[in-house]
């Protein structure tokens, strides 16, 4: 029972995880190309000697990953069945995100968000979220776990639950979950501060 006397309701969030998704060679090529594109973009924006930012994000139009996009589309039907979520339009989008925090004493995780929430909380039509993770081996950062929360009910409306699933930030790993689920990334500590040692991810959606 909740403190208000109402029954507690928790809906477990389904997560589909695919390990060794593209294969070692393809994943390494994608990582190398993404790092090169980020270096060039950062140099044009901030100068060649600019430090690596704690968080850097590139939209799809700046950094394209056609092989990854094609592979994700190939899984769309089975993922919809496994999650019990429909993404009928066939639309897809993604962004490339780098996380690299050098200050290990600061341990705040990222905000808890829902991909389906657009501006001012309006539904943006996104049905399924996906996160594809890359990193250099051996891994030179700590943290970076993707935490996907279960859903509860507060005041008659869906809300972020206390229970969750943690998805390790393993190289060449792809995870799908409903875009209506709350999620966050845990703090990434990267003592070297080098771009190549960062936590890299392609974060996208199906609609």
What is the CATH superfamily classification?
A: q2cbj1_9rhob like domain
CATH-derived architecture? Sandwich
SS content category:
alpha+beta
The fraction of residues assigned to DSSP E strands is: 25-35%
In CATH terms, what is the fold-level topology? Jelly Rolls
Alpha-carbon Rg, integer: 18 Å
As a percent range, the share of helical residues equals: 10-25%
**N-to-C terminal Cα separation, in Å?**
36 Å
Per DSSP E runs of 2 or more residues, the count of β-strands stands at 13
Q: In sequence order, what are the helices and strands, one letter per element?
A: EEHEHEEEEEEEEEE
| Count, helices | 2
The number of domains: 1
Neighbour order of strands in the largest sheet: 2-10-6-13-4-3
Q: In oligomeric terms, what are we looking at?
A: single chain
Mean pLDDT reading: 90
CATH class: Mainly Beta
Architecture blueprint of SSEs:
Blueprint: E1 10-11, E2 16-18, H1 24-46, E3 55-59, H2 66-83, E4 92-99, E5 113-114, E6 128-134, E7 142-143, E8 146-154, E9 157-167, E10 173-178, E11 182-185, E12 188-189, E13 199-206
Antiparallel strand pairs: 1-8, 2-10, 3-4, 4-13, 5-11, 6-10, 6-13, 7-12, 8-9, 8-11
């Amino acid at each position: 029972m909740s403190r208000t006397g109402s029954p507690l309701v928790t809906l477990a969030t389904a997560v589909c995880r695919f390990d060794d998704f593209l294969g070692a060679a393809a994943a390494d090529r994608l990582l190398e190309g993404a790092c090169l594109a980020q270096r060039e973009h950062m140099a044009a924006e901030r100068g060649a000697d600019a430090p690596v930012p704690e968080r850097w994000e590139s939209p799809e139009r700046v950094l394209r990953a056609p092989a990854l996009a094609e592979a994700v589309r190939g899984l769309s039907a089975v993922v919809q069945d496994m999650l019990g979520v429909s993404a009928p339009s066939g639309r897809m989008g993604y962004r490339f995100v780098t996380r690299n925090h050098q200050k290990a004493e600061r341990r705040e995780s990222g905000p808890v968000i829902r991909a389906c929430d657009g501006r001012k909380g309006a539904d943006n039509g996104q049905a399924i979220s996906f996160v594809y993770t890359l990193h250099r081996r051996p891994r030179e950062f700590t943290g970076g776990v993707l935490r996907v929360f279960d859903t509860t009910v507060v005041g008659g409306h869906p809300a972020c639950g206390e229970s969750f699933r943690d998805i390790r930030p393993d190289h060449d790993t792809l995870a799908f979950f409903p875009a209506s689920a709350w999620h966050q990334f845990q703090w990434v500590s990267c003592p070297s501060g080098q771009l190549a040692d960062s936590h890299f991810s392609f974060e996208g959606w199906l609609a």
